[in-house]
Amino acid sequence: MSAPLRVLVADDQVLVRTGLVTIIDAQPDLEVVGECGDGQAAVKLARELSPDVVVMDVRMPVLDGITATRLLAGPDVAAPVKVLVVTNFNLDENVYQALRAGAAGFLLKDAPPDQLLHGIRTVAAGAALLDPEVTRQLVGRYATRIRPAAADPGDLPLAPRELEVLRLVAEGLSNSEIAATLVLSQETVKTYVSRMLAKLGVRDRVQAVVYAYRHGLVD
């Protein structure tokens, strides 16, 4: 039996943090190795404890969750930590910034416990967590603000099918949903996704979504 996934929880609301810790620790495959109430402590503990996943609130004292995420998972970090951001709808612009800062995904604070647990396991496994509806509302709502101008798809380093896959990823579709949409096998879709990420120089699906919105590829 493999060792439990090690999780660090950072949230300044004690009741919320206690609830997250209780939910996570109740799972045999998950273990909370630390908890804290501000971003500076989150960065310190993450560097000391090396958790598999950090569950990070956005608005926290001393150091906000976005800055903490950038310090732990930003593009200049040699050994990035996997960060799952939890937020409210009224923090949607901040979530976009968190994704740019290197977060592997995000959830709403009112998500049911099974979604939180699924999110932690998904992020720990190296996949990005993107809920389609939340993606559209949180990122799409600010699309005109976060992209400088629409790009000519012909200028992108992608083959036509890879561009199709990028657009569907940006809409929040899973590999199986993309496969059904394009009438392809899931293995073929995985290959296209891998090629697309490599050509764009982005490390995961979250960064691909940011790229797509910044270049005006999604309405």
From TrEMBL:
Sequence ranges assigned to domain HTH luxR-type in this UniProt record: 151-216
Domain Response regulatory as annotated: residue spans: 6-124
Matching Pfam families: GerE (PF00196), Response_reg (PF00072)
Top-level taxon: Bacteria
Entry-annotated residues carrying 4-aspartylphosphate: 57
Keywords, ordered alphabetically: DNA-binding, Phosphoprotein, Transcription, Transcription regulation
UniProt name for this protein: Response regulator
Record-linked CDD domains: LuxR_C_like, REC_NarL-like
